[in-house]
Amino acid sequence: MRDRAVAPRRYAPGFSLIELMVVVAIIGIIASIALPSYNEHVRKSRRAAGAACAAAMAQGMERYYTTALRYTGHPAAATLSARCDPDALQFYTMNVDNVGAKTYRVTAAPRSGTPQAGDSCGTLSITQAGAKAPTTAGCW
């Protein structure tokens, strides 16, 4: 009988389980770094929208003062917030308070139960003198 030459063993193409697990681990590490950064970026953009809404409401108050020479009797906060981006109103509660003949304060408070509630800046406010709070860098 003739000895047959043994053919070299062929490996099936594809990935081994270890290679697949290494890729999954790398993706997990990248996601754990990128996700908090992404969430903070989204929170900052929502904060900017809330600040823009507060500024638009303050402009509405100033327009009213131009014609009436007082802030009392101003349009309701709901009327003023119609100038705002609807997406900002999903994450911020807008209010006009401390209204006097010569004073007012517009506040944008993060809504509880939304991702914006954990914002480090908290409630944004602007007065008739243009004083903005909080004064922390990056909040306005």
Automatic annotation (TrEMBL):
Keyword Transport: no
Residues spanning the membrane: 20-38
Keywords: Membrane, Transmembrane, Transmembrane helix
Protein name: Type IV pilin protein
Annotated organism of origin: Luteimonas composti
Lineage: Bacteria, Pseudomonadati, Pseudomonadota, Gammaproteobacteria, Lysobacterales
